[in-house]
Amino acid sequence: MRPTTRAWILPVLLTVSGSLVAAASVLRGSTGAAAALLLPFVLLAALNSPLAFPRSIGAAEALRRSAADGRPVVYWRAGCGYCLRLRFRLGRGARQLHWVDIWRDPAGAAAVRAATDGDETVPTVVVAGRPHVNPDPAWLRGQLPPPVREI
């Protein structure tokens, strides 16, 4: 199975399930309830899709950029609740990190396995060359370089 396909399985299943539940409600004559039932499924699908995360880059490029700018590298995968928690708890600060989707980048998956004794435990964050598995978002925010002010 292609990595891109695997990342979309859960969001597609949630959308299809929500559509079936909504269709059953429409057949019973309740279109308002159908819309109310479909909305949570669509929201869950969006949250569990790659769309909820900043654009991913390859592991080699992320490490190169991190060496140049000192920003951490986050290894993640779609559908991971801990990754989603980290992403949303970082807020806008998430854009400052270099994100690597381990389902799209075999080198990223290998880096995570090397850091976690053979497991693909995500999120794994590399700060200053040291891996941290599922770090506290508040701690990670403290590892970000200060924003550059334009004069």
From TrEMBL:
Question: Could you name the domain of life of the organism this protein comes from?
Answer: Bacteria
Ordered alphabetically, the record's keywords are: Membrane, Transmembrane, Transmembrane helix
Q: Do the record's keywords include DNA-binding?
A: no
Keyword match Transferase: no
According to the record, the segments passing through the membrane are 33-53
Coiled-coil region(s) at which residues? none
Protein name as annotated = Glutaredoxin domain-containing protein
